[in-house]
């Protein structure tokens, strides 16, 4: 292989690692070669395990470990409960709300059992378990392919069902979030689904404890709508400033679930 190709492929890996995603068109312009040359580069890098191919480009192979839902359930337990308390207080009788999958959503589901005439739509298996015996809540499941590690449904069947509904409120979780890029997740199917969820709701809330602010452990991203609310705990401190500078509504809650 010519030295130029070796150096180009090494540079492609570096770009994908620093920026998260690299498109064929961008790489072609950057290195002054044809799109077909870039596609051959990406195929070789994927075969060697250096990159993972995506539609129209590639992303760096993730070296971080995605925690299981059971592992995450024990993290920041009190903060998640406080966030869930505040979020439940926003829900009104008669509404239809969408709950993402995840441990914070399970905590929120437990707080919604006394809301009258409520419909809860969810992709989360643990949310279904929390509400399975609550006769006063109508539960709709957006089925699809189950991601065992997160206990959430994703994929085309989930998206088809989602596109037939709208919601008063959508409550989303995340592995991380930044003010510049939005929601960070381990899997591109998750980020696509979260974007679709946000598009279907009148009010969008992202529920994340303080440690997830500015945290980007993976390379799959979901953009948030122009208007959304970040809900976190009081430990966030100055980490909320980048979001406020972008005119995001930020709510920080104390241990009792009261906004500060």
From TrEMBL:
UniProt keyword annotation of Lyase present: no
Keyword Isomerase tagged: no
Domain HTH deoR-type per the UniProt entry, residue ranges: 5-60
GO molecular function: DNA-binding transcription factor activity
Keyword tags: Transcription, Transcription regulation
SMART domains: DeoRC, HTH_DEOR
Protein name: DeoR/GlpR family transcriptional regulator of sugar metabolism
């Amino acid at each position: 292989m010519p030295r130029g190709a070796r150096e180009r492929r090494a540079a492609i890996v570096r770009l994908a690692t620093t920026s998260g995603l690299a498109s064929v068109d961008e790489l072609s312009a950057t290195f002054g070669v044809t799109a077909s040359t870039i596609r051959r580069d990406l195929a070789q890098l994927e075969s060697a395990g250096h990159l993972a191919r995506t539609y129209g480009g590639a992303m760096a192979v993730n070296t971080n470990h995605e925690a299981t839902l059971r592992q995450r359930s024990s993290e920041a337990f009190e903060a998640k409960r406080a966030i869930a308390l505040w979020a439940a207080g926003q829900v009104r009788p008669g509404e239809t709300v969408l709950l993402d999958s995840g441990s914070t959503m399970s905590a929120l589901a437990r707080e919604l059992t006394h809301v009258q005439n409520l419909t809860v739509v969810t992709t989360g298996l643990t949310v279904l378990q929390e509400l399975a015996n609550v006769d006063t809540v109508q539960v709709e499941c957006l089925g699809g392919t189950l991601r065992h590690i997160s206990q959430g449904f994703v994929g085309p069947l989930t998206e088809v069902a989602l596109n037939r509904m709208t919601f008063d409120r959508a409550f989303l979780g995340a592995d991380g979030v930044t003010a510049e890029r939005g929601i960070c997740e381990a899997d591109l199917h998750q980020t696509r689904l979260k974007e679709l969820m946000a598009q279907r709701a009148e009010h969008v809330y992202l529920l994340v404890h303080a440690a997830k602010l500015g945290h980007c452990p993976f390379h799959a991203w979901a953009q948030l709508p122009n208007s959304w609310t970040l809900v976190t705990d009081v430990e966030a401190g100055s980490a909320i400033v980048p979001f406020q500078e972008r005119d995001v509504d930020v709510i920080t809650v104390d241990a009792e679930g009261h906004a500060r």
